Automatic annotation (TrEMBL):
<dbReference type="InterPro" id="IPR036271">
    <property type="entry name" value="Tet_transcr_reg_TetR-rel_C_sf"/>
</dbReference>
<feature type="domain" description="HTH tetR-type">
    <location>
        <begin position="11"/>
        <end position="71"/>
    </location>
</feature>
<dbReference type="InterPro" id="IPR009057">
    <property type="entry name" value="Homeodomain-like_sf"/>
</dbReference>
<feature type="DNA-binding region" description="H-T-H motif">
    <location>
        <begin position="34"/>
        <end position="53"/>
    </location>
</feature>
<dbReference type="InterPro" id="IPR001647">
    <property type="entry name" value="HTH_TetR"/>
</dbReference>
<dbReference type="InterPro" id="IPR050109">
    <property type="entry name" value="HTH-type_TetR-like_transc_reg"/>
</dbReference>
<keyword id="KW-0238">DNA-binding</keyword>
<dbReference type="Pfam" id="PF00440">
    <property type="entry name" value="TetR_N"/>
</dbReference>
<protein>
    <submittedName>
        <fullName>TetR/AcrR family transcriptional regulator</fullName>
    </submittedName>
</protein>
Length: 198
């Protein structure tokens, strides 16, 4: 199945489809939005849609892939710019808080998607797991540079704090959620750095 041209040089129509899908999937949910709505709002034909995406799931995967790439870029910038691993992790946490405070915030795109695709065998579910593993690995890698012992549980703690903040951020006062989240991250980082090997 050769789809290399649209992926190597995205067309304007493909970009419009993906931009539209990203907006409506995130704001309203994936299952609640049909292909007809995306085609109409992107102002393309159904034939154009199917030329770029053989089915709706392909569009969902492209949407999650675009969100994943944006998050990877943000994390890479934080890691590159941070003079220390702790600074990099603080920057990653600050980026998460900034997202929570942004207009139209509706939680984590990946947690939202996996709630709609609970089957572990689905491609969407697998894409969510791959993204989450990448994020855990990034955090653990930075924590290991501070202190290798217990970097893995500390990384899991970081991710759980992030998940809680993303869920609470669209339900409660975002500034309070972010303040609580950033304080928790700071305490986690200080505790991880302060522990001594026995």
């Amino acid at each position: 199945m050769a789809r290399s041209e649209p992926e190597s040089r995205p067309s304007e129509a493909r970009n419009r489809l993906l931009t539209t899908a990203t907006r409506v999937f995130y704001a309203e949910g994936i299952h609640s939005v049909g292909v007809d709505r995306i085609v109409a709002e992107a102002q393309v034909t159904r034939a154009t849609f199917y030329r770029h995406f053989p089915g709706k799931e392909d569009l969902v995967l492209a949407y999650l892939g675009a969100v994943d790439q944006a998050m990877r870029s943000q994390a890479d910038t934080a890691v590159t710019a941070g003079p220390t691993p702790v600074d990099a992790l603080r920057s990653i946490a600050a980026g998460i808080a900034q997202g929570i405070r942004s207009p139209g915030f509706r939680g984590c795109a990946f947690l939202n998607a996996v709630a709609e695709y609970p089957d572990p065998g689905s491609a969407v579910h697998q894409a969510v797991l791959a993204h989450r593993q990448w994020f855990l690995d990034i955090v653990e890698g930075q924590l290991a540079r501070v202190r290798k012992a217990s970097a893995e549980p500390a990384a899991r703690h970081f991710v759980m704090l992030r998940d809680g903040a993303m869920a609470a951020g669209c339900l409660f006062e975002p500034d309070l959620v972010c303040e609580t989240f950033l304080r928790g991250i700071e305490e986690l980082l200080e505790g991880h750095a302060a522990r001594r090997r026995p």
